[in-house]
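Q: For a teaching handout, I want to show students what a protein-ligand complex looks like in token form. Below are the inputs, and the small molecule is coenzyme A. Please produce the holo structure.
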Amino acid sequence: MAEECTPTINTGLRGVTVASTKISDVIGAKGKLIYRGYLASDLAAKAGFEEIVHLLLFEKLPNKDQLTSLKQQLAAERQIPKSIIEALKTCPPSALPMDVLQAAVALLATTDKEAADKSRPMATRKAIRLIAKLATVLAAWERIRKGKEPVTPDPTMNHAANFLYMLTGQKPNPDLVHFMDVALVLHAEHSFNASTFAAREVASTRAHMYAAVSAAIGSLSGELHGGANVRVMEMLLEIGSPDRIASYINKTLDEGKLIMGLGHAVYQTDDPRAHILAPMSKRAGELAGDTRWYEISTILEKEGKKIFKERKKIDIYVNVDFYSASLYYSMGIPVDLYTPIFAISRVAGWCAHVIEEQYAEAAPKPMLYRPESKYIGEYCGPDECSFVPIEKR
Ligand SMILES: CC(C)(COP(=O)(O)OP(=O)(O)OC[C@H]1O[C@@H](n2cnc3c(N)ncnc32)[C@H](O)[C@@H]1OP(=O)(O)O)[C@@H](O)C(=O)NCCC(=O)NCCS
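A: Here is the structure, written as tokens, with coenzyme A included.
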């Protein structure tokens, strides 16, 4: 019989604090994103992705020797096994890159003899392995689906440069390397968002890092999360010119649909990352000789905020995906790689969270996630249903 109880249901776990973390903080009201005590916007201006990887995994910014050592470890781990390349070649070219990435992470576990080693130092090594290899997998997939051979990583290049080099086979333009490096820094970590929570939830079962990261990639693929940057670019392409912006916004809202790249579950101001990505989007447009997508984005931001205020009586703000779309487009990156690029950066944050979930000493120590649910299904009258054999149904 149904029990008499009226539990509070926090849909989407909004406002529910499930763990403590030393990795990052999002101060939504002030529009601040903090990585281990530092403002992400400050780090984006002053540090490269490898320094952020060190900060996230080792809890401190590296000194010169530590940074050199980490760069060497990443370089040593960047190549992917031949068997992974062969497996990628079996995927149809139409496969969604996020699906390919997720599958590749599960396959990488099968090639890592130490995948199931649960020791703390091994967790860091696996994290470095995954961070190094994920970008290579993505670049290899982009080439394989276009009928080209993957490019071997160059140990003299940093992570951002290597990714662009492996995508195109050409030595990348330093401006584009800088844009990619900053984008990687800005996407590396964002507290308990959906994909990080997915990673931590899987890690809480004591599953290994590959299992946690592949779950996180699945979570990131959704359009309400990382998938939004692809949808932003599709929206910009559909709008096509500034004079169509207002009618696009009104029509979309009339149909009860979302304007992608606007709104955030935590920020009650503009996403601080958007203010760094916007000028890079402009500069990338100038380098490409076409600033249209940046310009449409800026007008869309202004008009969107105005129309939301008039129609919905709420303030709406831009999120990280809003300007990353036009930035990547102007950099010549295929649209369906935008969310996977988010993943090749966020993997650093996911791995730090997996380590914290499994090895944190501070109280309260994490434990297996097991929320409650309220059953609203059927009973048969006042009691449980009695089983009816199939012939009698
Ligand atoms: C991110 C997101 C899921 C947050 O949702 P949320 O926490 O429900 O946001 P809010 O509580 O501030 O929403 C308030 C209202 O504005 C609406 N709204 C929020 N963002 C909107 C958007 N981008 N387009 C249209 N309406 C939007 C909500 O549906 C809600 O309407 P309602 O009160 O009529 O139900 C949401 O803003 C969204 O879907 N944005 C577009 C997708 C996107 O860019 N995702 C990337 C996030 S980094």
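A: Two things your students might notice: The two ends are 23 Å apart (CA to CA). Residues 239 and 248 are 7 Å apart (CA to CA).
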